[in-house]
Design goal:
Distance between the termini: 11 Å
Helix content: 25-40%
Number of domains: 1
Order of helices and strands: HEEHEHEEEHEHEHH
Largest sheet: 6 strands, mixed
Keywords: Glycosyltransferase, Magnesium, Pyrimidine biosynthesis, Transferase
Strand content: 15-25%
CATH class: Alpha Beta
Binding site for orotate: 39-40, 136, 164
Family: Belongs to the purine/pyrimidine phosphoribosyltransferase family. PyrE subfamily.
Shape: globular
GO cellular component, one term: cytoplasm
GO molecular function, one term: orotate phosphoribosyltransferase activity
CATH topology: Rossmann fold
Number of strands: 8
Radius of gyration: 18 Å
């Protein structure tokens, strides 16, 4: 199951995502073909200030989770800046007491010159946290786990920004679990998210300025959500 953390941090993150235009309410056709009443696009964290703040949220969620880790791994491509920025945020976090966290990432195409290969950064060893924006099909997690295990290291957790808490499949044959739950079960490791659909709904409940979207999001969760 996904790891829990403080709701205050999660709600702060939901507000931050809204302010940055990363989280929006309305009517959006998503990758699955569904019409979603909200849309979360972490690619819109695209400035130094916003990515720096995002990385602080990642670092806090990881430390709050209690997961033991030695380094970060960012799957290409979105995971590359996320792992880099989060390593910087962890290095400056008071709870780390000056500890320095290595990171690595993969490139999609093998390099045939210089150091060669598909891995860049620190050598993969110890307990490795995979960092990405969201989990949809789980393909990037599977590839990351294979890379980490092949290096003799241990996948320790997956760290993501948003858990949509959503079942996959066509409306008449929905999966029993969400992609996040499937990843946690398949690989026997926690999935830590900064925030989830529950936190979005908590904001809609508490903030009157977003009240008009509450029913649509609740209906979507009733139809597609996991408990």
């Amino acid at each position: 199951m996904p790891a829990a953390h403080s709701s205050a941090t999660a709600l702060d993150f939901v507000r931050f995502a809204l302010n940055e235009g990363v989280l929006r309410f309305g009517s959006f056709k998503v990758k699955s073909g569904r019409i979603s009443p909200y849309f979360f696009n972490a690619g819109l964290f695209n400035s130094g200030r916003s990515v720096g703040k995002l990385a602080q949220f990642y670092a806090q969620a990881l430390l709050d989770s209690g997961v033991q880790f030695d380094m970060l791994f960012g799957p290409a491509y979105k995971g590359i800046p996320l792992s880099t920025a989060t390593a910087v945020a962890l290095a400056g976090h008071p709870d780390m007491k000056g500890g320095d966290v290595p990171f690595a990432y993969n490139r999609k195409e093998a390099k045939d010159h210089g150091e060669g290969g598909t891995l860049v950064g620190a050598p993969l060893k110890g307990k490795v946290v995979i960092i990405d924006d969201v989990i949809t099909a789980g393909t990037s997690v599977r590839e990351s786990v294979e890379i980490i295990r092949a290096a003799g290291a241990e996948p320790a957790a997956v760290l993501i920004a948003m858990d949509r808490m959503e079942r996959a499949g066509p409306d008449d044959a929905l999966s029993a679990h969400s992609a996040v739950q499937d990843v946690a079960k398949t690989y026997g490791m926690p999935v830590v998210s900064i925030a989830s659909l529950s936190d979005i709904l908590a904001l809609l409940q508490d903030d009157a300025s977003f009240a008009e979207h509450r029913e649509a999001v609740l209906a979507y969760r009733t139809k597609y959500g996991v408990k």
